[in-house]
Amino acid sequence: MxxxxxxxxxxxxxxxxxxxxxxxxxxxxxxxxxxxxLFVITTVCFLLIRILPRQLPTDKVQAxxxxxxxxxxxxxxxxxxxxxxxxxxxxTKWDFGTSWYIAFRQPAWDVxxxxxxxxxxxxxxxxxxxxxxxxxxxxxxxxxxxKWQDSLISTMVMLxxxxxxxxxxxxxxxxxYSKLGxxxxxxxxxxxxxxxxxxxxxxxxxLAPVLALSFGEIAGLCRFTRAELSxxxxxxxxxxxxxxxxxxxxxxxxxxxKNAMVPxxxxxxxxxxxxxGGSMIIEQIFAVPGVGQLYLKSxxxxxxxxxxxxxxxxxxxxxxxxxxxxxxxxxxxxxxxxGEQ
Length: 341
Known about the structure:
Blueprint: H1 3-51, H2 60-72, H3 79-93, E1 98-99, E2 106-107, H4 108-114, H5 116-143, H6 148-162, H7 165-179, H8 200-205, H9 207-233, H10 236-243, H11 248-274, H12 280-285, H13 291-300, H14 304-332
Antiparallel strand pairs: 1-2
Helix pairs in contact: 1-14, 4-14, 5-6, 5-9, 6-9, 7-9, 9-11, 11-14, 13-14
């Protein structure tokens, strides 16, 4: 390597280290803030759920076991002392409590992890279907801006964005089950699907909730992609690219799409993180034994520890998605430096 090149490389090292330092400082600050927010929300949820009257089962044996367990955990103590015991068990034993209604005497953490796979599969299939379709429709609408194709796609997008997901669920059940008979009303149980969540039979039964989740995701991605790409196509550097001899298609693929994807990719990353959270209403309608349905059951059955486990889980996933999205901007677009003044 020549001397001039060595000087250039070594002169860039302090700037690179400084930028890395800013990014690291920003990440540490956001992680600390995330755990503080998680602590505050967990505290509020715990105090509110403990204020509610206790619900004991009618079976005397179960009721006695639950009462003894609550007394052993100190749940007869004042609220703040109960919360201190709850946090101590989590930190020292990774013990989030026990389910007494949904899964009798099973640890809350095990109950949650057992239901993660169905939630992940349904939402993952939905994203793999909706992301490419939504982006392609958005690109097509931006390229055909102010033409009838754009008007048609924009009208459909506004319609699909405005309709709640549970409406799509009922429409899918009515059309594909009641009228056409192509899809089952609800997903198969594990026994009916051959004992495996990852099988062709289970995938077939999951098509209905996948379709119900996809409509809104496709519409949102299409609208966002069209807005970003339309703005990029009218920028000055696109005019410069055309004057240099590039065709419209070449300028769009080489320059416009690359810059338009900067705000779109973090949105996609956030969607993939969000698949852990699931969809409460869709899982309830299609009988998906996932995290969303577990959360609704914990509320209706007053299964306190399961409710707290789900609340902590949902809060953590939401906060983590926000941090990953913010950090990804700095990696995707080198012009953005998080934490740098």
